[in-house]
Amino acid sequence: MKKRSKAVLVPLVEIAHARSGDKGDTANVGLIARKAEHYPVLVREVTAARVRRHFKGIITGPVERFELPNLRALNFLLHGALDGGGTISLKTDAQGKVFSTALLRLRIKVPSSR
Amino acid sequence: MKNTTVRVAGAQGFWGDWLEAPYRQLVGGPVDYLMLDYLAEVTMSIMQKQKSRDPALGYAKDFIPLMERILPELVARKVKVTTNAGGVNPRACAEAVAAAARKLGLAGKLIIGVVTGDDLLGRLDQLLAAGHALANLDTGRPLSDVRSKIRSANAYLGAAPVVDALRQGADIVITGRVTDTGLTLGPLMHEFGWRADDWDRLAAGTVAGHTIECGAQASGGNDLADWGRVPDLANVGYPIVEARADGTFAIVKHPRTGGKISVAGVTEQLVYEMGDPHSYITPDCVADFTSIRLKQKGKDRVEFSEIKGKPATDKYKVSCAYFYGYKAVGTLVYAWPDAYRKARAADQILRKRMKDLGLSFEAVLTEFVGVDATHGPLAGPPAPDLAEVQLRVGVRAPDQAPVERFTREIAPLILNGPPTVTGFAGGRPKPEEIVAYWPALLDKREVTASVDLVRV
Q1: Residue to test with chain B: of A87, A93, A99, A106, most B Cβ within 10 A
Q2: Residue B425 domain flag
Q3: Is the ipTM beyond the 0.85 threshold?
Q4: What is the CATH classification number for the domain harbouring A43?
Q5: In 10 A of CB B251, how many CB atoms?
Q6: A93: nearest CA in chain B?
Q7: Any idea what the Cα angle at residue B228 is, between residues B223 and B229, rounded to 5°?
Q8: Residue A23: CB partners within 8 Å, gap ≥ 6?
Q9: What DSSP string runs through B39-58?
Q10: Which residues sit opposite B35 in a β-bridge?
Q11: B287: contact with A, CB 8 A cutoff
Q12: What is the pLDDT of residues B266-295, one digit of tens each?
């Protein structure tokens, strides 16, 4: 069994960047580790369930997650995120452009040796 | 093989992008093609509306003066153009460009290729009768549910007809609904002689196209990774694909331009509007974004390699636009002190009045700009001493009447609601028709792309 190292709570914005966009009523958020050693941390901590909880009250549908280890990125699909999406939506962010930094507010456990 | 490298320059990322970009891409250094992407999901319905008023319209009008400006240089430098500026009327767009070219004394010096066959509006009933449900990809509803409200219907064509046009000698290829990526892949297939079943190379050209299809979003614009350190965005260089026959390519930009080509910034563009990264489906192939290898090779140069693709599917994606209803958005700005409290009070008053008037809406959405409009409750409680808050209320309904009445309820709040309110200089908001997007699939054999030439 691996030795448990000390962990600190860090907002994602410190170790990752992101870009988001829309497809209909679904927002996608591509979450990218700034350093290679942080990609496994993202994979472990930023689960689809965790992201669904983070956006509670903001999105109405499920969250899907895809892994892109080659780009040290995770892609999230946030369904029911845009009040109908596109031209139907009444939201300022009808095209999901700033879901990126909304996700980067999430605080996750990162090994303190970082 | 005709060329060892081919340079395709991204010059417009959407209808409304920077008007200076195409000229700068043309004269800033060597390029072989300019690629101009104009079409977003509902753009076609706007163009259809323009065409119904005037049969000579229905394309991106901005494209004509833009071409007027660059045509002499384009001809002198033998640079070609691929664009979907043709919208729902590529032929009229081509004729307008041809007329502009003749005025500039370029008669005999240009061939324009026109790609059509994507427009399905006139064939919808026949397709439905033949059993093609054109079911909504998101909801599963059959198109027959909204048939009478359909305003436009177009198949997303791929690179094949662009290649055809280039093979027939076109210098400028003007299309209707061709995919953004097909406008970049087409030139690469043509120049390198890539076969239509060379899936890895087609996937590489598709990834190249995806990378430059949003213009400067790949060269330092909207770059979250290090935006404070991106140099000279005022002078931003748009991205250029420098492709080789083996399917590897670099993303670069012209020297002496601003912006930045970095692995971090390019990665942001790669994940933009992404679905399942294993299957990025286009009419040409299915690209696997988990295969892409990126490497920074010096300043402002990112190399792409090892891209893998899978066979194309037997369907075209179809994009329909249908009339949905009406909406309007009203805003007012409340100033310190108690800006947020005043804005909330105004919202309550507005809602009470609409209820008393018996107005019925499908949705009413209130946002407080400065507090929760972008990140909702994730933003946490606002600072107690905000300088101002913008109240932003949107309504949506199937009928115009309640939306129209709502637009008359905003201004009165200035004099009969909470104090220190301003920001109504734009006047009463206007009810807006909602034309919504309906994505569907259709068997490829139902669609035939065709190419004809306009000789200037």
Answers
A1: A87
A2: yes
A3: yes
A4: 3.30.70
A5: 26
A6: B374
A7: 90
A8: A85, B273, B275
A9: --TTHHHHHHHHHHH-TT--
A10: B10, B82
A11: no
A12: 999 999 999 999 999 999 999 999 999 999
